[in-house]
């Protein structure tokens, strides 16, 4: 097996590779972004391995969406556990997350004040003791907001191409009909008396982060607007209400404040595509992007292709899907990255980037996720961290698909009902190399042969229950 030098990998723009490379991460932990059998030109020698055929269109006719990045949610839990690490360990961790030394994440979503993955008590950036604050005089990031902004600034300094999305779980209590952050689903709606304060809250937040060196690229005005839950901060926002808040209030407020932060629609499950469609139709001056989560019953990412076909100029992202040490399978992150990429998503983010060894900290009570495990798990007592299988599965994409890569149309992926099958997605990268990510959900190795429309054939082994990433040289190289 050929051993490419690491320098070639991290400086592709300077010298695109001329020989293929392959890397694997496997459910059994034998491979963790490890070098693996490189594919050979032609149909190769499968021996008695099972075989599988894939094809891609790597010519101009096969070009689909352009990639922005991959990453995860920077929650209060993430910030708290990262800050519990000794300085040298924390530096090492951030370097691995945000550079080609590791996952090379280039897109993060952060929680605007508390989510369910915050320690008690829940809070907003303008609680004001529950009293109305029409002038937002009491707006304050607080300790946790300041720590969040500091971490995001450090991430941005390591990854200058980082795209940051911000999403709130609830407006301040006093802006709501029920006047509480959490505790009841009754009247859990915005009080439109304060629609202009609702908009100014985003302006204040964006300026406060900017003053800490963090440019926020995009917001959604509400995480999961159809999820009214008493157990943690939420607010219910109807589709037409969301569109009108953006068109009449939030959009104009951002513009008059000189902020170019984008506003993405929806931020919820794929089973109600009429919601983002209504937002796009109601707020055409401000919205051209839709954010999706993975929690619909029988979630099927082809909903994004259906949405794309109806809205070909609208960008789409997968902005939240959980990973859990006890509830999700080894291929959870591979599935929720692969599926959206095959269906026009320009980026994918997991929930949550970090947690402690008890899946926290999180709010108390029965609403919050008490089994959401970070891609990174920090043992706060020992001052050490470790990566979950989900980290490696995402990194099999993020490390080899740079920002600016273009997804190629392809065929040959197939999943059987249940947990077996072979799925693939390919990109052509800014330096002309091609990345092919292959997810093998069979318990045996599979010998894959890939045909390209440019006229090449590549073949190689894909380990059992793993994701293998091939990096192929530019066409004709
Ligand atoms: C499967 O393919 C690999 C890579 O070509 C080869 O090393 C191995 O011997 C094959 N296994 C069998 C059982 O033929
Ligand atoms: C998703 O929907 C598509 C199109 O209807 C279908 O071909 C595919 O089998 C579905 N996938 C799953 C996992 O149900």
TrEMBL record:
Enzyme class: hydrolase
Molecular functions per Gene Ontology: glucan endo-1,6-beta-glucosidase activity; glucosylceramidase activity
Family annotation (SUPFAM superfamilies): (Trans)glycosidases (SSF51445)
Name of a matching Pfam family: Glyco_hydro_30
Keywords noted in UniProt: Glycosidase, Hydrolase, Secreted, Signal
EC number: 3.2.1.75
Record-annotated Glycosyl hydrolase family 30 beta sandwich domain positions: 417-470
Any Gene Ontology CC annotation: extracellular region
Main subcellular location of this protein, as a coarse class: secreted
InterPro entries (alphabetical): GH, GH30_C, Glyco_hydro_30, Glyco_hydro_30_TIM-barrel, Glyco_hydro_b
Residue intervals passing through the bilayer: none
Family of the protein in this entry: Belongs to the glycosyl hydrolase 30 family.
Name this polypeptide is given: glucan endo-1,6-beta-glucosidase
């Amino acid at each position: 097996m050929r051993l490419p030098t690491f320098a070639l990998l991290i400086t592709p723009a300077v010298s695109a590779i001329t020989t293929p490379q392959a890397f694997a991460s496997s459910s059994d932990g034998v491979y963790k972004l490890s070098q693996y059998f490189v594919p050979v030109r032609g149909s190769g020698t499968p021996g008695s391995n099972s075989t599988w055929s894939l094809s891609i269109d790597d010519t101009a006719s096969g070009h689909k969406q352009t990639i922005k990045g991959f990453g995860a949610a920077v929650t209060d839990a993430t910030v708290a556990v990262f800050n519990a690490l000794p300085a040298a360990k924390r530096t090492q961790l951030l370097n691995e997350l945000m550079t080609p030394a590791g996952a090379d994440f280039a897109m993060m979503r952060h929680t605007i004040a508390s989510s369910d993955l915050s320690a008690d008590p829940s809070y907003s950036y303008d609680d004001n003791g529950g009293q109305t604050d029409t002038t937002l005089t009491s707006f304050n990031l607080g300790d946790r907001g300041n720590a969040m902004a500091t971490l995001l600034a450090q991430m941005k300094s390591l990854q200058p191409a980082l795209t940051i999305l911000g999403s709130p779980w609830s407006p301040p209590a006093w802006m709501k009909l029920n006047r509480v952050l959490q505790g009841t689903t009754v009247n859990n709606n915005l009080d439109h008396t304060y629609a202009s304060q609702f908009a100014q809250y985003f302006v204040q937040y964006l300026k406060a982060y900017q003053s800490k060196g963090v440019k926020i690229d995009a917001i959604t005005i509400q995480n999961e607007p159809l999820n009214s839950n008493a157990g943690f901060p939420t607010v219910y926002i109807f589709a037409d209400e969301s569109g009108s808040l953006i068109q009449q209030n939030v959009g104009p407020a951002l513009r008059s404040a000189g902020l170019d932060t984008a506003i993405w629609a929806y931020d919820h499950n794929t089973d109600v595509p009429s919601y983002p469609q209504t937002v796009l139709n109601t707020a055409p001056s401000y919205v051209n992007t839709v954010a999706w989560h993975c929690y619909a019953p029988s979630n099927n990412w082809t909903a994004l292709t259906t949405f794309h076909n109806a809205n070909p100029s609208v960008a789409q992202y997968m902005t939240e899907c959980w990973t859990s040490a006890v509830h999700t399978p080894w291929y959870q992150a591979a599935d929720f990255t692969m599926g959206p990429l095959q269906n026009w998503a320009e980026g994918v983010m997991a929930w949550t980037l970090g947690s402690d060894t008890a899946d926290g900290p999180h709010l108390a009570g029965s609403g919050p996720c008490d089994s959401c495990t970070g891609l990174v798990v920090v043992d706060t007592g020992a001052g050490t961290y470790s990566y979950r299988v989900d980290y490696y599965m995402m990194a099999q994409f993020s490390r080899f698909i740079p920002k600016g890569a273009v997804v190629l149309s392809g065929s040959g992926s197939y999943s059987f009902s249940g947990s077996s099958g072979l799925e693939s997605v390919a990109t052509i990268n800014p330096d002309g190399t091609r990345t092919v990510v292959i997810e093998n959900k069979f318990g045996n190795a599979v010998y894959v042969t890939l045909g390209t429309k440019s006229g090449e054939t590549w073949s190689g082994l894909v380990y059992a229950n793993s994701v293998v990433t091939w990096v192929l040289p530019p066409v004709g190289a």
